[in-house]
Amino acid sequence: MSAATGILNGYDAIRDDQEALYRDLHAHPELSHEESRTAAEVARRLEGWGFDVRSGIGGSGVVGILRAGDGPTVLMRADMDALPITEATGADYGSTADAVMHACGHDVHVACLLGAARLLSSHQDQWSGTVVALFQPAEETGDGARGMLDDGFADLLPKPDVALAQHVLPGPAGTVLTRPGPVLSSADSVRITVYGRGGHGSTPQKTVDPVVLAALIVVRMQTVVAREIAPTDTAVLTVGSIRAGSKSNIIPDEAVLELNLRTYTEATRTHMLEAIERIARGESMASGSPKEPQIEVYDSFPLTENDETVTTRVADAFAEHFGERALEMDLQTASEDFSDVPRALGVPYTYWSIGGTDPDAWAEAERKGTIFSDIPANHSPAFLPVIQPTLETGTAALVVAAGAWLGLGSENG
Ligand code: ZN
Ligand code: ZN
Fold first, then answer.
1. Ligand 1 centroid from CA 336, angstroms
2. How many angstroms is it from 382 CA to the middle of ligand 1?
3. 38 CA distance to ligand 1 centroid (A)?
4. Cα 117 to averaged position of ligand 1 atoms, centre (Å)
């Protein structure tokens, strides 16, 4: 029993509709920046439940605001986009789109936030404050949240007191997992173009060879984490792509390297970006390159660092409501752009995860030690959360967490 038990008794009345909506969303996935069908469905439903709705924010972003008397403002966010993957789950509600799939579970997030919005709307006598339900486009490309902010999102709502978001991950369905402090890494991709002076492969003395230059950069990059990052800190730097030349006896004019880095503090991120630039420029100079290298940072995701106070409050509410199904979340090397919104608004936030794997399948894989091989993870063409208890848990998690600010249940004791 918890303060939210009363309102969550209403879940049975919305269960069928929510499951049908989820199947429909799963069957109709939309790529980043193209979430128009999903957004229209979200807006239509929120309006029907009395939310003040604004659509088309930063593309297909939707925000619904529901005021129920004085009290804190709680922002809850779900992302809406799918991935360019051909579904291989075999589900009868599988994707009907060509090579597009909800392989990251954002359809679960949308269904759960709509479920929470509906329950909060139909039980307004049980809480007091303002609910902001944010449906964000383009999480997978890392620019959906910023796009909404650039489009004036902050002016559309009262300043929230707290921001909340969740993600479905591999793990027993029915569990909710929290973690204070850094929880998801920041990620950046960097494209480096270095320049040489092309010529015949038989006369290297007349050229500046960008292939050798690029190779030296790759080797030197390996020293950044090993020699410049403290052993107690952690970071990843991978050169995932290197391209140059077309034929064995031609020295090309340029080479292009693509790097990906993951870090858990802003200071480490800044240091690594500076080191990458320093090495690219330094090696170019050492090679006698005729032109400064071009360095472009793209696909950047911010660090997700949960506020300690907010996370403790949510974790306590989860422990009270979910009991032993409330667990601690591991540090993830994945990345998210959710925190761009609370950071821009100056609002503390927490981001938690819910399990989406059939609990029996999970227990069996755990027993055999085959979790990584047997349990499909996010971005796999076989990723398919079990519908229940995933939807009920994700809906309850939002209501319980928001309820910790909205005085949920206090009206009726
Ligand atoms: Zn994803
Ligand atoms: Zn995702």
1. 8
2. 14
3. 17
4. 23
Considering every ligand atom shown, identify the ligand nearest to the alpha carbon of residue 169 and give its number: 2
- When pLDDT is averaged across residues 104-128 and rounded to a whole number, the result is 97
Identify the band that residue 138 occupies on the pLDDT scale cut at 50, 70 and 90: very high
Q: Which two tokens stand for residue 366?
A: 């755990």
Domains of the chain: 5-184+303-412 (3.40.630.10), 186-301 (3.30.70.360)
Question: Using CA atoms, how far apart are residues 116 and 399, in angstroms rounded to an integer?
Answer: 6
Which ligand is nearest to the Cα of residue 380, counting in written order?
Answer: 1
The encoded tokens of residue 8 equal 């969550």
Q: How many other CB atoms sit within 10 Å of the CB of residue 343?
A: 17
- How much is the pLDDT for 411? 43
Lowest mean pLDDT across 4-8, 70-74, 255-259, 316-320: 4-8
**Shortest-distance ligand to the CA of residue 79:** 2
Distance of CA 56 from the midpoint of ligand 2 (Å): 21
